[in-house]
Amino acid sequence: MTVPTTQEIAVRVEGMSKYYGTFHALRDINLTVARGEKIVVCGPSGSGKSTMIRCINRLEEHNAGSIMVLGTELNDDVGNIDEIRREVGMVFQHFNLFPHMTVLENCVLAPMLVRKMPRAEAEATARRYLEKVRIPEQASKYPGQLSGGQQQRVAIARSLCMQPQIMLFDEPTSALDPEMISEVLDVMVTLASEGMTMICVTHEMGFARRVADRVIFMDAGEIVEEAPPEIFFTSAKSERTQLFLSQVLGH
Amino acid sequence: MFKLLRNQKVRNALLQALYVGALGALVIAGTLIARQNLAAQGITSGFDFLFKSTGWDLGFSLLPASANDPYWWYFIIGILNTLFLGSFGLALATLVGMIVGLAQTSANDLAKLLGRTYVDVFRNIPLILQVFFWYALITHLPPPRSAHEGWGMLLTSRGLYLPAPNVGGLALLAASLAVVAAIVLPIWLGRTSLLSRPLGQRFSVQLAAVAAALVCAVLFLFAGRLPDSPLLDLPSLQGLNLRGGLRIPPEFSALVVAIAIYGGSYIGEIVRGGFKAVGKGQVEAASSLGLTPWQVFTLVRLPLALRAMLPILANQYVWLMKATTMGIAVGFTDFFMITALTINHSGQTLEAIGILMAGFLAINLSLAALFNRINKAIALKGNQLRG
Amino acid sequence: MEMVVVAPPASGKLEDLKRRFFATPRQAVISLLSLSVIVFLVWKLLNWAVFSAVFDASGGPDACHAASGACWSVIAARWRIIFFGLYPYEEQWRSALACVTVVAMTVLSCIPAFWTGRRIALVWGVGAAVFYVLMKGGLLGLGFVGEEMWGGLALTLFIFVTTCLVGFPLAICLALLRRSELPWISRTTGLIIDGVRSLPLISILFTFAIVLPFALPQWLQGDKLYRVILGSALFFSAYQAEIVRGGMQGVPRGQEEAAMALGLSYWHRISRILLPQAMRNALPATINQFVISFKETSLVIIVGFFEILASGNAAYGTGEWRFAYVEVYAFIAMIYFVFVFSLSRYGAFLERRMSVGER
Ligand SMILES: Nc1ncnc2c1ncn2[C@@H]1O[C@H](COP(=O)(O)OP(=O)(O)OP(=O)(O)O)[C@@H](O)[C@H]1O
Ligand SMILES: [Mg+2]
């Protein structure tokens, strides 16, 4: 692996720890993500995957170590936090669309309020991204009127409307019925092929094989294994990884 | 400096300090200004005034009181009056509410209509208007010399006169305790594990306990009766005045009636809600086991409904307790009115308001604590139940 | 419907009646009892209020003494004092118009099209301003009428509207402060809210009307009316804050997280995401709170205001109409009933509609 220069680094996490009360949720996490890189994070339930990526846009506050995002340090400085959140998009397991706004309003809200984009321009951008996630015709519906897969695609479009440089995905497909998973994954694959920096928590190993540059395995708050997919799936070093893989791929 | 202000931790600390500091400053400044203003009027702050005699009389008091008594004694009387009025009002309101609620949940459409109408009419008229109405009604009754009479009672513009037992105070207290025991004992007997009889088969024991308690009550009354007088002191007209008997002043009756009627409409709704919360499945299950409708009601619907309504009922009780302050509208010397009178006469504004707040806080907290205990005691055990 | 006309058996109605009201002996007893109570009450009421009542004011109180029913002539003779209190006679049309403004405002805010923060604030802000200008005058060629002359229904409505107008934003602030992540802020606010809620409204009104002047510098004291309104607003907001907070708790945590992840600022998160959803959740309870606080405006009589109840007392309290208190109270009760009942019915309707609309 070539060492990326500072310019090319999207996220650098060094020695990060996180506590919930006395519970040590993340231990000494070290992770460097280059621009354009696609990372897939997997691991058993409760291993700290969500916590880790939520630290990257300060939905959770880390207790030790440092996090640099796009060259800005994530610390107590409110200005830095705002700056990072503008550049980092996030997609949630349960979509978290705003139910009292139409799909279009969901999409134009942040660009108008945060980026101070004029409405016409924001709407044009929103329609472009809705097209990209293949639901332009649903723009005037309310989230409650869409299927789960459609909602998740709207959520992706909503994040993209902010034109972020990094996208975080927290199990975007695990709340979906099987037949809806692929429509969301297709969108994510397209996004990946366009060069977006992505960190995805997912158990979709097919997706990991296809797009990931690196797969990270976490257990008990630690990064246990970190390898390109071809190595990760065939010759994982640690036993815990192998056990996990046999469980996930076993059936 | 500017950099520091952008720091989240610094900001949070600053915000909190500002908020708490500003509120604290407001309170302190207010108190200081008030003390200064009051001192200018020759009123020294402090609670010494509690031990001075008041110099004014009370309209209604459960305990002996005169203008020579100190303020602290008046405050105690005020709290007692409030509690007295409150407990009467609450008890009657609960009774009315139960009847109205049951009418509303009855299978009979006519009874339902009656219950519904009652709730809609009385809940939508302000309580104080109802207090004024009943007070006007009572004070417009005929004067003592042409009073309405019946069953040894007299109904006049000066209040309701009831026959009073000619019994010493101590015996009366003992007798009322015995009556309370007659209510509490069977409940306790029904739940205790001290008896070897199984639950549900203790009816005869409970009956015996009630009978014994009531007999005790009657015995106490006889033992304590005053010598050389009939057992009952009947009110009667002598000249232009009424003598004897127990006078219930118009202020008190107006308040009790108004609270009972108004509170009854709210409690009626709560009772209806409680019964509505009992699942149809429970009732069907009980009927299918062969229980009679009465058994289904007493053993299944009522206990479950009670559990559902208790928390809301507790809030309602607290509300009604606070509503006793409307006594001041008709001149009933409750806790609040005594506070207001104290401020008028002594000028000890801050202290009196402080006592008022502390008193109501105490009343509310104890009511809440009581209901929490009851709630805990009767709550369904476990959390594995499905609707 | 009309296609399935199957002629019911001749005794169908009767059978139906029997099944509904006389199924068992117990049912029959309850039915008969209820029926007799209903008939008795309706007859008594109609007889008193209509058949034997005196409506014509020309006979004066004497005509009432002769009749056995209600004496509505007291209302005919004294309605102006009940509605307008001591407001100058020639200017009372302004007071009436002001009341109409409030009713119009209330009706407007019941229409869903007005349920955005800005529109509802606009309706109430403009309504209150119109009300104020109409009542107080001194503008647009209207003669000046000081607050001490206000009374009757207009004063009741004024106190209600201003209480809500001040109390509602305050309630939202208190709710936000109470759910703040900063422990000192949330705890202090909790103390204030719980403290106010544990006190009776009368004691708060009394404190604001009579005690507060001691604790304020001269220039801050203001008119007694506005101090009382402030007290009543504080009380309203303590209750409403808990309702709003309940509504906020009904909004999933993910909503705010999503807004944060999009980079929205605190105020935008609150105003665009949290509050719109929380207020929707809290709507039925909010209307209930409005109903309660409308009824509670009547308590200002205790600190010496001439609102509708006090003016009712005055209407029958003097001389010749002394005996007609039942009619006056019944009339005022009717006024309250019309306002409160329609509002609470509307609340019940909303609640049903919302519980059906949930998916
Ligand atoms: N707010 C919180 N308070 C306390 N503990 C928490 C909190 N959030 C998460 N945890 C704990 O931290 C650990 C990591 O949680 P996290 O949600 O990151 O797991 P995960 O890997 O995302 O699991 P899953 O696959 O189930 O989503 C868990 O043991 C969890 O119990
Ligand atoms: Mg997770």
From TrEMBL, chain B:
One of its GO terms (biological process) is amino acid transport. The lineage of its organism: Bacteria, Pseudomonadati, Pseudomonadota, Alphaproteobacteria, Hyphomicrobiales. This is ABC transporter permease subunit. GO terms for cellular component: ATP-binding cassette (ABC) transporter complex. It comes from the Bacteria. The chain crosses the membrane at residues 12-34, 71-100, 121-138, 170-191, 203-223, 252-271, 317-340, 352-371. Belongs to the binding-protein-dependent transport system permease family. HisMQ subfamily. Residues 79-371 form the ABC transmembrane type-1 domain. Pfam families: BPD_transp_1. The keyword Transmembrane applies. The keyword Transmembrane applies. It is found in: Cell inner membrane; Cell membrane. InterPro entries: AA_ABC_transptr_permease_3TM, ArtM/GltK/GlnP/TcyL/YhdX-like, MetI-like, MetI-like_sf. It comes from Mesorhizobium waimense. SUPFAM superfamilies: MetI-like. One of its GO terms (molecular function) is transmembrane transporter activity. NCBIfam families: HEQRo_perm_3TM. Keywords: Amino-acid transport, Cell membrane, Membrane, Transmembrane, Transmembrane helix, Transport. It is a multi-pass membrane protein. PANTHER family: AMINO-ACID ABC TRANSPORTER PERMEASE PROTEIN YHDX-RELATED, MEMBRANE COMPONENT OF AMINO ACID ABC TRANSPORTER. Its main location: membrane.
UniProtKB/TrEMBL annotation, chain C:
PROSITE patterns: ABC_TM1 (PS50928). It holds the Pfam family BPD_transp_1. One of its GO terms (biological process) is amino acid transport. InterPro entries: AA_ABC_transptr_permease_3TM (IPR010065), ArtM/GltK/GlnP/TcyL/YhdX-like (IPR043429), MetI-like (IPR000515), MetI-like_sf (IPR035906). The chain crosses the membrane at residues 28-46, 93-115, 122-144, 150-177, 198-219, 328-349. This is Amino acid ABC transporter permease. It is found in: Cell inner membrane; Cell membrane. Belongs to the binding-protein-dependent transport system permease family. HisMQ subfamily. Gene3D superfamilies: MetI-like. One of its GO terms (cellular component) is ATP-binding cassette (ABC) transporter complex. Keywords: Cell membrane, Membrane, Transmembrane, Transmembrane helix, Transport. GO terms for molecular function: transmembrane transporter activity. Residues 153-344 form the ABC transmembrane type-1 domain. It is a multi-pass membrane protein. It comes from Mesorhizobium waimense.
